[in-house]
Write a structure and sequence with these properties.
elongated; six-stranded mixed sheet; 4 helices; Nuclear Transport Factor 2, Chain: A
Length: about 170
């Protein structure tokens, strides 16, 4: 009888060991972010615009990017080759951004200091560094500034109405 119990125990021991161990290929859920922390902002604060902008570029997420832009959005920049200012609206901005997201391996956007801000935070000029990796041998580094006019949308979220790119690219 003791031999039989010992035999069953010896058969069950490996199963207990295997099922009792933590599987390194299926680690436990990391709860360090906590319930109050998110990678995406609700855009109720101005900093939320920049947080979501960075997220959209990092993860190439046009859905989040589209939520940053007002329905009457306008983008403009200086084309130094033409010696003229170029601008477009929301639809073209979404097409251009989708092309950027689709044709790059990696985008790394870093927001730097706020250079100026209106008293009601509706206009912000902020510097940035953007690294665009098309492939390992084609990497572009851009240091520039954005000049953003912000408005509140119908959900009381900050959105970008006008974006003037003040980069020298």
């Amino acid at each position: 009888m003791k031999k039989r119990i010992l035999k069953y125990f010896m058969l069950l021991l490996p199963a207990i060991f295997i099922f009792g161990c933590v599987n390194p290929f299926a680690p436990a859920l990391d709860k360090s972010l906590g319930a109050n922390t998110s990678l995406i902002s609700d855009q109720k604060s101005v900093e939320g615009i920049f947080k979501n902008f960075q997220y959209a570029y990092t993860f190439k997420d046009t859905t989040i990017y589209g939520q940053l832009l007002d329905k009457d959005f306008s983008f403009s920049y200086r084309d130094y080759d033409l010696g003229a200012d170029v601008s477009w609206g929301r639809d073209e901005e979404m097409r251009v951004t989708q092309g950027l997201f689709s044709n790059t391996q990696k985008l790394d956007l870093i927001w730097n200091n706020i250079i100026s801000m209106s008293s009601d935070t509706s206009n912000i000029v902020r510097s940035f560094n953007l690294t665009i990796t098309f492939n390992p041998s084609d990497i572009v580094f851009i240091d520039g500034r954005v000049n953003l006019d912000l408005v509140k949308d119908s959900k009381n979220r900050w959105v970008i109405k006008n974006w003037i790119d003040e980069s020298n690219f």
